[in-house]
């Protein structure tokens, strides 16, 4: 059997022959377990089987080193081999089953700002706390009385990139936006984590075809990379070690100035958002 070793995990190649199979039921269960998804071969995991999401978005089924497959786990015809790419399983309540590439933006509050990008150059920040230090205060922004104004006010007219962050949860909102709660720690801890909001919009109703196509491609990318993640509130929805970089235009959601967006225990700390997101990448 031909195998490749990466640290403490064995990747069994597709070309492996002989035993080393497991039932599709187990493969599907692993694929749908958000706590079994890793984005780096160095990530810790207590799971016997994990799904490694490569930087390109492919999902590879891995088995932890230490339990050799001397006997087939399953001899059934509906089995998959360890090391094969795992097909995305569209299970109710996951991102992949609940969102579409072409879903239109249907919101009515500040629709132009939410679906168009600033033309400013990108400013890069190492972490979320670094970005927070550059933002105008809540009091300053509330004094602008933005309301339903459909133009980007001066403090919002910025493009930013966060080099390292962690995705905690995803909600698909009624206006078809993908709403992400992200933070600066690998595991969410309400006592230490700085949480930020980020939204990937539905396809704009107006604006240039270039922007519409960019949003479609971004949504396609998110649906591919994060397809198996359970939506906010579903079992296993809270992600750990989902390391990302993210960029986009700033937006101050004055409708959340008193009650920041939240998903159960994960709550934002301000009305500031990256909205719309320009790009998001999974990091090793």
Describe this structure in words.
The chain has 284 residues and is α+β, with helices and mostly antiparallel strands. The chain has 2 domains: 87 residues, no CATH class; 186 residues, no CATH class. It is built from 6 helices and 15 strands. The longest helix has 17 residues. It starts with a strand and ends with a strand. The N terminus is likely disordered.
Structural class: alpha+beta
The residue-averaged pLDDT reads: 82
The tally of beta strands, per DSSP, is 15
**Cα radius of gyration in angstroms:** 21 Å
**Strand order within the widest beta sheet:** 1-2-6-5-4
Roughly what fraction of the amino acids lie in strands?
25-35%
Kindly give the count of domains. 2
Helix content: 10-25%
Distance between the termini: 27 Å
Key terms for this structure?
284 residues; alpha+beta; 2 domains; 5-stranded mixed β-sheet; 5-stranded mixed barrel; 6 helices; 15% helix
